[in-house]
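Record type: monomer structure entry
Structure origin: computed from sequence
Chain ID: A
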Amino acid sequence: MTEDSALEAARLHCRSLQEALDGFRRTGLPRIADWGGRLAGVLTGGGRLLAAGNGGSAAQAQHLTAELVGRYRRERRAYSALALHAETSSVTAIGNDYGFDHVYARQVAAHGRPGDVLMLLSTSGRSANLIAAAVTGRRAGLRVWALTGPGPNPLAEAADDALCVAAGSAATVQETHLVAVHLLCECFDAAVAAPLARGAAAVPGRMS
């Protein structure tokens, strides 16, 4: 590949990403804002987020849980969030004993409680292990959300709610998913902070 062709490939990729982000801005932002508020209600009430994906989507899922257990921007308390693919002994034992399609579903059955949130990320929306996890999660009373590539797809249909990114490549879908993860954390933090700010404003004599 020549330098000129490499530069053109990079430009095409950037154009594809911009188009995906434009679509996400129009249709995805309200859903992410809603999810952030709902997630704040679950986690501040003692619930838990479970997250999973395969390959690059596994990294995105773990990025999300790290931001919740640690912090995104502002200092705040830690919240319960588990990346199921990071449980290596469980993943390999379940995969060996039950098959790879069950590596997440069995963990959801073990760790999930009614009212918890299960976030599943997939560029294709066709991963059998994530679909099985969605089915198990809904049966157990979890709220199941999916971040996927172009819809419709089986994972989006298996979830309670889904945000499907319209993009021509898995790389562009993953890049848009990263933006969605960061915005979810942004909306989560804003929702968590809002009641605290209202409480502080209600204290007589407190300076703003």
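Annotation 1: Helices lie at 3-27, 29-44, 56-69, 88-98, 105-111, 128-139, 154-158, 170-202.
Annotation 2: The CA atoms of residues 69 and 78 lie 5 Å apart.
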